[in-house]
């Protein structure tokens, strides 16, 4: 991989997402400016209020100040609303954009990426990281603009009233800031601990739920209870630590502010100011500005860590967006019918550092042939057929359809030519109807679906379910038996009606009787199609045009059933094992 991206690059890239929304973003900034101005104006207003209104009963001040208070708060409210609303508007637009981009990216990544990634991590990247990025960005921008302006305004007001007192404050202020910063660091550490231990808690719960059957059979309840007690207790302790810091934080800060106040009151009333002594109104205005200054100052000191968090989350998103998609540089379209499929010296390893699982495999298949692959588990049958729709890339050799290498076709055209029933059936949490019609874009009629189900011997059992074709199958088809799931998957593949049919142990979960029936359906369907079958029961493939025997990633034998039996080698041995 390339070197880690620089933070400024990540920041610039994030800003590119904000750019299209610059008008709304401008409204938000205007709101922040208004908000900052009103804070300063409010502190300034304290002077005429006290000196004019209370002390001297000045008639203009008596009217002016209350009206000004109301006007100020109307402006402040409108400005606050605009800054929050428009900032959130931009933030959510960016979150949505990032989420769709990452999701779309996921759909184009190669299969090997999913083999190595954890689904939880991939999900949280879309849901959580994108939100963290946008929140951090909008909060830090709000803090930066609003609080910087507020601080500048308030400080200017303070200096205007008394530069001596302001200097005094500038000496005490940073000391308070330092102590508060120390405490907030502890606080952040405590929150991080809570977050991590929350992760542990959910992890234990999730395993206990997902593994409930294993827990029951193997009597793992005590073990799980113990595990849960451990994470539950440490979560409680981390929460208590955070509460302690928080509860101490408030009186500590108040005490510090009180000390600062005491010093400034002492200086203000003492002889040090000489001729520059303040009126009560000026003094209150000064103190008001000082108190209003603490909150924005504190937020400004945590700005950096917030930006860092956002950048870290942004980097993880961008690294996902920068991953290589499946290579789809081919331009040709497969013309039907398919006349030949040719594997030539194909070698493949799942990872460069792992041994090859296919070693120079050569097979040629003619149009309409049914080819059966047999061999011990782990001999490379699934790997071999998953190369045809380019689920994985191979390292050397070539695979071609109609004489053209499969890489020269567009992925869409290649995959459109192939129907595939994989070893592990995947069903969506939807109705049976939608599972079977998956990918047809709703253009398919009920009759066509039913015809496919009849062929897959699924029609009868589907009608027996409470809602027939509209029955929901549950997460990954959990409401169906293994054999029923397989028949739904076969129906789905048959409905696709592609010229090449690949069946990877597609009937392994069926009992002998149903398998025989499904097999009859499949036999009719294989006619006129080029079919690759991985069989787990040899009896189902005796009629295949050719049987290919695989061992340790190599083709060790091929021929018809009777030829291979006569040879009395690998196939005949496998056959004896199953039928003795
Ligand atoms: N996704 C994968 N990642 C890494 N190795 C794999 C993967 N799938 C299969 N293998 C390995 O490849 C070898 C062949 O597996 P496979 O093609 O599934 O055999 P078969 O289908 O004949 O049982 C096995 O050693 C297996 O461990
Ligand atoms: Mg397999």
Summarize the structure in words.
There is one protein chain. The protein has 2 domains: 1-162 and 280-324, ABC transporter type 1, transmembrane domain (ABC transporter transmembrane region fold, Up-down Bundle); 340-579, Rossmann fold, CATH 3.40.50. Helix 2 (22-55) runs antiparallel to helix 3, helix 5 (119-161) runs antiparallel to helix 6 (163-210) and helix 6 (163-210) packs antiparallel against helix 8 (221-269). A hairpin with a 2-residue loop joins strand 4 and strand 5 (404-405). The model has no long low-confidence stretch (mean pLDDT 86). A 6-stranded mixed sheet has the order 6-7-8-3-9-10. The protein has 580 residues and is an alpha/beta fold. It has 19 helices and 10 strands. Bound molecules: adenosine-5'-diphosphate and magnesium ion.
């Amino acid at each position: 991989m390339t070197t880690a991206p620089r933070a400024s690059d990540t920041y610039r890239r994030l800003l590119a997402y904000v750019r299209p929304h610059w008008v709304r973003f401008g409204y938000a900034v205007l709101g922040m400016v208004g908000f900052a101005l009103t804070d300063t104006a409010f502190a300034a207003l304290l002077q005429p209020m006290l000196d004019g209104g209370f002390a001297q009963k000045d008639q203009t001040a008596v009217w002016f100040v209350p009206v000004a208070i109301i006007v100020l708060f109307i402006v402040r409210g409108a400005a606050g609303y605009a800054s929050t609303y428009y900032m959130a508007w931009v933030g959510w637009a960016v979150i949505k954009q990032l989420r769709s981009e990452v999701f779309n990216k996921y759909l184009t990544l190669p299969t090997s990426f999913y083999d190595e990634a954890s689904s939880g991590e991939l999900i949280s990247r879309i849901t959580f990281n994108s939100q963290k990025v946008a929140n951090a960005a909008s909060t830090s921008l709000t803090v930066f603009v609003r609080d910087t302006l507020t601080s500048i305004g308030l400080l200017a007001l303070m200096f205007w009233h008394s530069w001596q007192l302001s200097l005094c404050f500038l000496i005490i202020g940073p000391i308070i800031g330092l102590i508060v910063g120390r405490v907030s660091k502890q606080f952040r550490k405590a929150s991080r601990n809570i977050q991590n231990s929350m992760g542990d808690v959910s992890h234990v719960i999730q395993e206990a739920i997902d593994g409930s059957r294993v827990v029951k059979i193997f009597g793992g309840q005590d073990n799980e209870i113990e595990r849960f007690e451990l994470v539950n207790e440490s979560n409680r302790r981390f929460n208590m630590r955070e509460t302690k810091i928080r509860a101490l934080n408030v009186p500590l800060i108040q005490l510090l502010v009180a000390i600062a106040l005491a010093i400034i009151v002492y200086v203000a009333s003492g002889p040090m100011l000489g001729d520059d002594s303040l009126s009560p109104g000026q003094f209150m205005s000064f103190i008001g500005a000082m108190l209003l200054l603490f909150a924005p100052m504190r937020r400004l000191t945590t700005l950096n860590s917030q930006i860092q968090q956002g950048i870290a989350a942004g980097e993880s998103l961008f690294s996902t967006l920068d991953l290589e998609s499946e290579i789809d540089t081919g331009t040709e379209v497969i013309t039907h019918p398919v006349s030949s499929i040719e594997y030539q010296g194909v070698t493949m390893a799942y990872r460069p550092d792992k041994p090859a699982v296919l070693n120079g495999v050569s097979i040629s298949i003619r149009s309409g042939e049914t080819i059966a692959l047999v061999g011990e588990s782990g001999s490379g049958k699934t790997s071999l057929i998953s190369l045809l729709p380019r689920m994985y890339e191979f390292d050397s050799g070539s695979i071609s359809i109609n004489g053209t290498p499969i890489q020269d076709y567009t992925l869409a055209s290649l995959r459109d030519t192939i129907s595939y029933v994989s070893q592990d059936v995947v069903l969506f949490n939807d109705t049976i109807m939608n599972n079977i019609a998956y990918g047809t874009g709703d253009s398919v009629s009920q009759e066509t679906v039913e015809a496919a189900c009849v062929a897959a011997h699924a029609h009868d059992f589907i009608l027996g379910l409470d809602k027939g074709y509209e029955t929901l199958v549950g997460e990954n088809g959990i409401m169906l038996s293994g054999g029923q799931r397989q028949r739904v998957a076969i129906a789905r593949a048959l409905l696709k009606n592609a010229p090449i049919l690949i069946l990877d142990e597609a009937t392994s979960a069926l009992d002998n009787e149903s398998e025989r029936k499904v097999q009859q359906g499949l036999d009719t369907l294989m006619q006129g199609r080029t079919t690759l079958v991985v069989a787990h029961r040899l009896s189902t493939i005796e009629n295949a045009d050719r049987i290919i025997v695989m061992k340790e990633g190599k083709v060790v034998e091929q021929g018809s059933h009777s030829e291979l039996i006569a040879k009395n080698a690998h196939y005949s041995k496998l056959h004896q094992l199953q039928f003795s």
